[in-house]
Amino acid sequence: MIRVLLADDEAMIRSALATLLRLEDDIDVVAECADGTEAVAEAQRVMPDVCLLDLEMPGLDGVGVAERLRGQGTRCVIVTRHARPGVLRRALAAGVAGFLPKSRGADEVAMVIRRVAAGERYVDPEIAADALTDARCPLTQRERDVLHAGRRGETNTQIARALHLAPGTVRNHVSSALGKLHVETRQQAVIIAEERGWI
Fold it and tell me: Of the chain's two ends, which shows fewer C-beta atoms within 10 Å, N or C?
């Protein structure tokens, strides 16, 4: 049996998918979680073979969960409504073994779970094709750090404190990021960077 942990903050989707997966002879859903933090704790407790993770969840997103579980022996599959190419790159860098859109049926999800449990990797072909044509991130790592630290509207001073930088240095990084992304506000830069999976 393939032991699966399922994490999705939408209760109806989570319970429906769990019910459908339990109909498979070789898949056992051993835990259901409503957010990323709970998913990490449960995965460390029940040690599933595969974690099926929604990308966008409260607390930690699916990629964040995969990063925390790396090295545990559990393989992670990300499902998402918004399969942006940059997010795929971030997921693969975090050691995610599977990536597919939520538009796929339960039979295809089960197939991906089986492949990943067998040691393979699976990336939805459409997402993979988009990733190959998507532009590379023009931001430096520090510019991405600054945008990430300010993604919820934090002030430059709060960002500086969080990253152990001077407020003027934060301002310079923000200004540089705005120029590279051709936008006028930090919030616009954050939106672009999140949409493309750069932060």
Answer: N
